[in-house]
Design brief:
With 194 residues, the chain is an alpha+beta fold. The chain is built from 3 helices and 11 strands.
Length: 194
């Protein structure tokens, strides 16, 4: 049997706990400054090309999600059928591109500033060197979501899915595919600076 005094004590304790947790949450939330949040710096097409070991135009054949090698994150791997090597060299007809995020058995993980790939999508990708994983050889996008263009049926290369803190004017978000390819190929024509 609960009397009024016991009910009041329980209510006071519950209110104290709620106030205590709210004050901790508020102090943590308010202590986060803009400088502690992730911010992406805009990269030009030329900068992406210079830092990539391979730039390819291709079609996404398949996308599979897996647990990372350490089993702490979900990663997705897109199998891309290479149609054209724009910059760099590869003997591979198919490459595997790994990026964070995905869904496994109804459990999903979404990562900001990552552009996922869709089966059947035509893409232009700025890629890293091969990396060997327990489950196979993969490449990663250079510049996170900035390293992927989706190519529309209209021949326009488009980027989306990321925000820029500085250098937004450098980013080519939407251009004809042939113009993007010309910019990428022109990087090799420029003499090296001392």
């Amino acid at each position: 049997m609960i009397n009024r005094r016991t009910r009041f004590a329980w209510t006071s304790t519950a209110l104290f706990r709620a106030f205590f947790l709210a004050s901790i949450f508020s102090s943590l939330f308010l202590s986060v400054t803009d400088g502690s949040l992730a911010q992406m710096i805009g990269l030009s097409t030329e900068e992406l090309a210079k830092t990539s070991s391979l730039v390819v135009l291709g079609d996404v054949e398949d996308v599979q999600s897996f647990w990372s090698d350490d089993h702490r994150r979900i990663v997705s791997r897109a199998t891309v059928l290479v149609q054209q090597v724009v910059r760099g060299k590869t003997v591979e007809r198919k490459i595997t591109v790994e990026y964070p995020g995905g869904e496994i058995d109804g459990l999903g993980m979404k990562v900001s500033d990552v552009a996922p790939m869709d089966k059947g999508e035509k893409v232009l990708l700025f890629l890293s060197d091969n990396m060997v994983r327990k489950t196979g050889t993969v490449r990663k996008l250079i510049g996170k979501a900035q390293g992927k263009y989706s190519i529309g049926a209209d021949g326009i290369a488009r980027k989306k899915g990321f925000s820029i803190a500085t250098g937004a004017d450098l980013v080519d978000r939407e251009l004809p595919l042939d113009e993007i390819i010309r910019k990428i190929k022109s990087v090799d024509d420029k003499p090296a600076k001392d």
